[in-house]
Amino acid sequence: MEKSAFFENLQARIARMLDESPAADLRNNLRALLQQGFEHFDLATREQLDLQSELLSRAQARIADLEARIAKLEGAKEPLVHSPLG
Predict the structure, then answer these.
(1) Model pLDDT, residue 79
(2) Which of 36, 31, 29, 33 is nearest to 14 (CA)?
(3) Please, which residues have CB within 8 angstroms of residue 69's CB and are 6 or more apart in sequence?
C-alpha cells in the first residue's frame, strides 16, 4: 500500500469515527497532530524498497565478480608489467 493511500485511509477512518461523536474540534486537532507526527517518519514506498534491493543485489554480484578477478590476477605466476607507451 502506498504511503499516501495508507494515510488517506487512516484519515478517513478517523473522520468517520469522529463524525459519529461530538468531537469536531478534536478531529481537527488530531488531524494536525497525526500529520505533524507522520512528517517525522522517513518512509519509503514498496517500489522504492524493491528497487534498492535489486540495486544491492546487482552491486553484490559485481563485487563478487571483481573479487574473483582480483584473486585471479594476484595468483598469476608472472607479474603484470605495463609498458609506459601503452
Answers:
(1) 54
(2) 31
(3) none
Which grid coordinates belong to 42?
522517513
What pTM value is reported for the model?
A: 0.44
Residue owning grid cell 473522520: 15
Q: Does position 43 have pLDDT exceeding 80, yes or no?
A: no
3-class DSSP state of 1: coil
Alpha carbons within 13 A on the beta-carbon side of 2:
3
DSSP 47: H
- Residue 80, classified by CB atoms within 10 Å of its CB into exposed (0-12), middle (13-18) or buried (19+), is exposed
CA angle centred on 26, ends 21 and 28, rounded to 5°: 115
Q: What is the pLDDT of residues 65-86, one digit of tens each?
A: 999 999 999 887 655 555 455 4
